Amino acid sequence: MRYDVKSDVMQIKDHRLEIRVYLEDTDAQGIVYYANYLRYFERGRSEILELLGVPMDQVARPDSRLVVYEIRVKFRRPVVLGDRIEVLTSMERESAYRLTFRQQIRRKGEDEALVSGEVDVVAIDNNGTLRELPAVFSSV
Questions:
Q1: Rg over CA atoms, the chain
Q2: pTM exceeds 0.85
């Protein structure tokens, strides 16, 4: 994992999470059901945060929950039953209010992105009101 620090902008690059595609992940044609790519992205985001020392209980606190604000996904080629894939995740702190995760899914050992996406995450309070990201992100 590489760290690029630019003034107040936090950026983490190149986290890889390996996943095997099981029958439960696919539709009747043996192709990964589209919504499951979002689950793979979620796992990648969770793992990169854990590696940075941000435990899951910190992102799910009632007074400061991290939630998906926007997601953009491009489906280029299908992932199929039995594939071994890698979820590549990078994270950039865009502002005091927003993290952007850039993610790709590739077959293990290949360079072609099968699915790519950007996920913007923000923090909300108990009332669902936008708030600054938790302090733990300023020290990472």
A1: 16
A2: yes
